[in-house]
Amino acid sequence: xxxxxxxxxxxxxxxxxxxxxxxxxxxxxxxxxxxxxxxxxxxxxxxxxxxxxxxxxxxxxxxxxxxxxxxxxxxxxxxxxxxxxxxxxxxxxxxxxxxxxxxxxxxxxxxxxxxxxxxxxxxxxxxxxxxxxxxxxxxxxxxxxxxxxxxxxxxxxxxxxxxxxxxxxxxxxxxxxxxxxxxxxxxxxxxxxxxxxxxxxxxxxxxxxxxxxxxxxxxxxxxxxxxxxxxxxxxxxxxxxxxxxxxxxxxxxxxxxxxxxxxxxxxxxxxxxxxxxxxxxxxxxxxxxxxxxxxxxxxxxxxxxxxxxxxxxxxxxxxxxxxxxxxxxxxxxxxxxxxxxxxxxxxxxxxxxxxxxxxxxxxxxxxxxxxxxxxxxxxxxxxxxxxxxxxxxxxxxxxxxxxxxxxxxxxxxxxxxxxxxxxxxxxxxxxxxxxxxxxxxxxxxxxxxxxxxxxxxxxxxxxxxxxxxxxxxxxxxxxxxxxxxxxxxxxxxxxxxxxxxxxxxxxxxxxxxxxxxxxxxxxxxxxxxxxxxxxxxxxxxxxxxxxxxxxxxxxxxxxxxxxxxxxxxxxxxxxxxxxxxxxxxxxxxxxxxxxxxxxxxxxxxxxxxxxxxxxxxxxxxxxxxxxxxxxxxxxxxxxxxxxxxxxxxxxxxxxxxxxxxxxxxxxxxxxxxxxxxxxxxxxxxxxxxxxxx
Length: 693
Hints:
Layout: H1 20-33, H2 36-39, H3 56-80, H4 93-101, H5 133-144, H6 146-179, H7 191-208, H8 213-242, H9 253-262, H10 264-274, H11 281-285, H12 292-320, H13 328-331, H14 338-352, H15 354-369, E1 379-380, E2 389-390, H16 392-409, H17 413-441, H18 446-468, H19 471-506, H20 510-516, E3 524-533, H21 542-551, E4 553-566, H22 573-576, E5 577-582, E6 587-595, H23 605-617, H24 622-633, E7 636-646, H25 653-669, E8 684-692
Parallel strand pairs: 3-4, 3-7, 4-6, 7-8
Antiparallel strand pairs: 1-2, 5-6
């Protein structure tokens, strides 16, 4: 990579405008990534209702429930409101949290890692004053109360872990439910055959992830477009053939009549109806892979009308064939197109798994950028869309979890129960965080805030209460998966907090550094230049003191380097290096900033020359400039600092377990902070230090 080539700057805080044709193309691509799960929900909604002695009024009430659930929770809430609460085009619970943290001064240690610099202020927009008195009081309360900040952080961690769990449950549920349709055609096909066929398809799906979102969507979008088109055709055919007046279920009074007639049975049915909107959370979580308008257009003009007609067609068929409800979707397909539709539905089921897999990659990337998740490899698969990412490690973990769920549950009702429980919790957390954004950041009128918060909390609370009954029958699975990932995130965050606190309390001052390197000290100044890499942005880390005290030598020129990866495609040459002088003894500070698509190659002389040129620009002394140039000719070494945490005896049992075992295991098995840098190995040394916490 050349450090002198021309780069195109990325304007932070400005919403990138896409031409209409590009938005249409992105909307088409989103069909294969975002809407697979939501689009294939008609396969298992009616079959999960377990209703008996069905009347036409019951079916109309169920259809009305489905229509208004789709309309209120997906079309109005997600499409028209939640998608606007994005963080520079990124969606999901962590993006909401990051958005809030950029506008509220969180002081609790148990919050996201603050890596902002004063120089960043010209790159991003921050909120100003104004707003209602209640909005101002809410903001001040959140800034004063560490308890509220910790609660908010825990809520976001839980939502994040639920999304990751959803990334494992979605492929397992969708593929199994689609392939089970083949059993209705032959008694020789057992559930074991379905399970192992599902395993083969899922392995192929996860292997395909490395190709990136763009290639995946171009491969999957035609399948989903065909899926929606054929479902609409069959739905219209069934409506005309069986019950042309079925769309009268749009009237919500059928819901009231349904609950009055069925009581507790209708309440228990809500868990099955909720399956109609599983996958809606992917619309927000996958936002970074596309853009807001593309996702809005895709749902409003393709997905929503298609789903309404498909459910209406199924209901129309069931009015004349109520005994077929246990296999409603496949039974409603006309006999002469059954096998083509089975092939399309199986392909669509594989595609439907994609939405939450992509969402998991996005949310792990966001967690990494906020220092709340162990470092894993994040690969940006597109030079045009910064949100399109892939993580090999996360991909393999999801694959193992998904295959375990498929083989363990074998497609029983427990898997469907687990699926619904995880989604409702993600939606409730999203509602809460969006309300906070509306109140504190958007400064929305309190009446409008309550008009959003109260109805949606009531609706989602009712669904959640209905789904809680399913916890003993498989609903515990998402909580188990979430607990696993929550343990990882909490352990990593706790260790990071302790490490940051230790370094802040023991970092070197410039006066101490000057004193150690003074002429009357016993420190030998070796010829040459040392580039000392550390991830501490502010101050001189204690590992520098440790290094000097135990080696009794320092290169005549030492440059303490911190590397930042910014959430932009590339960084201009004039913004690449931020240098300064530390004291008067040949020690300098260099902040190196890369975009995610910039090569981090430091093996050639170009990197060294660029840094030294920048340092010489801030040096007024001719003697010092000559000293720098002379030291460069005598040799250069790259020094990597590595720290290990150890809990002292004053800590409790839980703290010692977290630091000495959980955090250390994660640190040992995660990528180093400078692992992406291409540093010449023959000139690289590593020094370690144990922090006794």
